[in-house]
Specification:
It is a single chain. The protein has 2 domains: about 150 residues, Rossmann fold, CATH 3.40.50.280; about 190 residues, Alpha-Beta Horseshoe (pyruvate-formate lyase- activating enzyme). It is built from 17 helices and 17 strands. The strands form 3 sheets. Strands 8, 9, 12, 13, 14, 15, 16 and 17 form an 8-stranded mixed beta sheet that branches. It has a 7-stranded mixed beta sheet with strand order 2-1-3-4-5-6-7, with helices on both faces. The longest helix is centred in the last third of the chain and has 20 residues. The chain has about 475 residues and is an alpha/beta fold. The structure holds cobalamin. The site of cobalamin has 44 residues, from α2, β3, β4, α5 and α6.
């Protein structure tokens, strides 16, 4: 059997505060088919300090190829470093897959990359492995871009998978324990992991990768029985009892969710879960529905709010909603013990100081109505190539460089071309304070970070409410910046 090496590069500062990095779901997912016919090995740079040694020893065994998962931001920098290192040591084929090459196919021009896989990788990597092994024409493999002599060839896009048709993820190829986060909650042992239930999104936020015209990201999910079966396997075999569904929009199909909750509620299985959705989708559920959700263990819902300015919401989101809907939703969720976690970003095109103040006022109103509420860090948006916002910026000549510097698309930095120095300063200070305005830090491994958060919270709230950043030097604690 040939060997295939898959690499999970580091993410960024997050790695140093969390001892339990997220399950490498992308790589596990693409191993579903290939793990049967090849020896698949995952080298995870986040957890293996000796990854270089491991890589060297695997290279000596002459694998069929090495493939890396790459998202933009700091991970892209690590992926570049690793690929360069491999090219120095060998002539083994290097493949990149994941969100970055998918939404930026130009990454095939990177001198250290031979092939990129665009979009979902499960079927493509299997076909590609067969083609490489049998030395057949790569032009027949849908969903890849590759170099051929002095040319770059972009093959046709592969259609998206039907979720229920996917085999189970091969958990035996990793040491799962390293990815499960165990902690105590009210004296009870919690074993927490990420998982996925659906792909794609129905909203079309102009800053989001789902708005990229380059790929169809139509929404699809597991059916209720299938999702429940996959979850039971993780509970029975690995004792996981807290799931974070990383889907962009879990709440699209009410019938599926209702049926999923009913199954859970009728069964002996008890677990908790977190998922994300849009304001519009979550708001239209009935009280009875929320009751079922809450009984089934739904603890936190991530809600794509994005701004406290109606004008900005209307200009960036397809699914229209009013801010008054959010205030109602906030109170309703409280009744059912479900914590709303609002996703908010700053720096959208056209955002004024007054819009920022509106967002802050809304945050404080939501906290006043529901003390458990949580917020994402108020990071400045990252401008991703090929999104609607990026296209708009290109057409209107707003970009001062031909392409954004994708490597440094880091949440802690305000790096968009249309904000001035003063606004950048404000956004970076707001970002730092927003890390500590609620109790989201409770899930962070580092005791130091948790302790700092508790002490700093009142100061963070004061600074944010009054936009008072006098004598502020604490945001220079860069290692704390990327943690939440
Ligand atoms: C969990 C998660 C994280 C985790 C870690 C993930 C990990 N693997 O270690 C954490 C919280 C650390 C994280 C951090 C960040 N994230 Co994140 N994250 C996610 C999230 C929610 C889920 C990823 C996942 O597991 N999906 C499920 C799997 C099955 O899907 P997948 O990874 O896309 O894999 C499929 C394909 O992409 C492809 N594929 C993936 N890898 C590979 C590899 C090969 C070789 C092949 C062939 C195919 C392939 O095949 C897979 C199956 O079809 C996604 C959003 C999403 N819904 O996917 C964002 C997402 C990946 N994150 C994103 C970003 C930008 C970040 C940050 C860099 C943000 C920032 N600007 O700072 C930060 C880093 C912060 C820091 N400074 O340290 C973006 C990437 C956008 C882009 N164009 O690259 C996403 C898509 C969110 C978004 N909508 O914008 N993230």
């Amino acid at each position: 059997m040939s060997n295939i090496i898959l690499i999970q590069p580091k993410i960024g500062n997050l790695d140093s505060v969390n001892r339990h990095p997220a399950l490498p779901l992308g790589l596990l997912s693409i191993s579903r088919y290939i793990s049967k016919d090849y020896n698949v090995k995952i080298i995870d740079q986040r957890i293996n300090k000796n990854w270089r040694k491991e890589l060297e020893s695997e290279l000596n065994k002459k694998p069929l190829f090495i493939a890396l998962t790459v998202m933009n931001g700091p991970q892209l920098r690590y992926a570049n470093q690793i690929s360069k290192l491999i090219k120095k040591m060998s002539d083994i084929i290097i493949i990149w897959g994941g969100p970055h090459p998918t939404f930026y196919p130009e990454s095939i021009n990177n001198p250290y990359v031979d092939i990129i896989i665009r979009g979902e990788g499960e079927v493509t990597i299997n076909e590609l492995a067969k083609a490489i092994k049998s030395n057949t024409d790569l032009r027949k493999v849908e969903g890849i871009s590759f170099k051929s002599k002095n040319d770059v060839i972009h093959n046709k896009q592969r259609p998206n998978v039907i979720m229920d048709s996917l085999p189970l993820i091969p958990l035996d190829i990793i040491n799962l324990k390293k990815y499960i986060y165990n902690y105590k909650q009210n004296g009870k042992k919690i074993s927490y992991s990420i998982f996925e239930a659906s792909r794609g999104c129905t909203n079309d936020c102009h800053f989001c990768r789902n708005s990229a015209n380059i790929l169809s990201t139509n929404w699809r999910g597991f059916s209720a029985p299938n999702l429940f079966k996959r979850i039971r396997r993780l509970i029975d075999n690995f004792g996981i009892n807290y799931f974070y569904f990383v889907d962009d929009n879990f709440f699209v199909n009410p019938n599926m969710i209702k049926s999923f909750c009913e199954r859970v509620n009728k069964s002996k299985y008890k677990f908790q879960w977190i998922a994300s959705g849009t304001v519009k989708k979550i708001s239209c559920y009935s009280d009875e529905f929320y009751n079922e959700l809450s009984k089934s263990g739904c603890k936190i819902i991530h809600i794509g709010l994005e701004s406290g300015s109606q004008k900005l919401i209307d200009s960036m989101q397809k699914e229209k909603f009013k801010l008054s809907d959010v205030i109602k939703l906030n109170k309703r969720l409280r009744k059912y013990g479900i914590v709303p976690y609002y996703e908010i970003l700053l720096g959208y095109y056209g955002e004024t100081l007054d819009d920022i103040k509106k967002t802050i006022r809304l945050i404080f109103k939501l906290i006043k109505d529901n003390k458990d509420v949580q917020f994402s860090a108020l990071h400045c948006l990252s401008l991703y190539e090929n999104t609607k916002l990026y296209d708009f910026a290109t057409k209107n000549k707003l970009l001062n460089v031909p392409s954004t510097n994708l490597e440094s698309n880091d949440w802690s930095k305000a790096k968009i071309p249309w904000i001035n120095k003063e606004r950048k300063r404000l956004l970076e200070r707001l970002y730092f304070c927003s890390l500590f305005i609620d109790n989201k830090h409770e899930l962070v491994d580092s005791f130091l970070v948790r302790a700092f958060s508790k002490i700093y919270r009142p100061i963070a709230l004061y600074r944010m409410k009054n936009l008072d950043f006098r004598l502020m030097f604490e945001h220079r604690l860069v290692h704390l910046q990327n943690i939440l």
